[in-house]
Amino acid sequence: MQENILKAIEQAEQLTKGTASINLKGKKYLMVKDRINIFRKMFGFDYGMTTEILVNTPERIVMKATITNKDGFVIANGHAEEVRNSGVNIASAIENGESSAWGRCLANLGLHGTEIASADELNAALEKNIKINNEIEQKQKAVKKDPPEKKQVQKINDKFVSYEDAGSLTYDQWIKGKYDQVTKDLYHVEDFNKWHYENYKTGIHLYKAGNEKQKVMIETIFKNFKTFKENAVQQGRNK
Description:
This protein is α+β, with helices and mostly antiparallel strands and 239 residues long. The chain has helices at 2-17, 32-43, 89-109, 119-140, 171-175, 178-185, 189-209, 212-234, and strands spanning 22-24, 27-29, 47-56, 60-69, 74-83, 152-154, 160-162.
């Protein structure tokens, strides 16, 4: 089994050096889904990974992930904390906490490439900092009333889209699963282009009509989309 661990670590390092890693600020990070793929490929059902909720309050969630062998011996574990009522955690704090705990646990097993933090964790941390900075700026500015609603809006990518073309989905219908789609499910450039075509108009419409928390979440989705698509283009991930 030790030999399999060494092989898994080697695969993670090779994958990080290739096109699967995410380059953020000059450092390469391996995504959680890639760590899980290596884990299952190398260990099958010899090792298992479980998660448990340690803290679950209206303010925050703390998760723990544990890898054990068939005898129940703990091989590695990892923890993650998510703050509720902020960005995508308004709707998906437990899901994000679980993914982050998986990433830390697999990193402690050795599946981290060149950086312990996963691309998912680092990106979430960056988004939290952006959210905090935005809140500080808003508090420093005088409260302004929203301008009258117009038939044309300009919010994302400097393109105008009419409400009539935006579709009739509600915010709750549209937002479900969008964060995971952008940060975990999309891989090839063509996938990103298709997602943009299917979601761009509705996203703008809902941004204009939404409250402050909804706007923050939609902004987060599109900022993540831009970052992850740029990485796909730079790495030449075409079908």
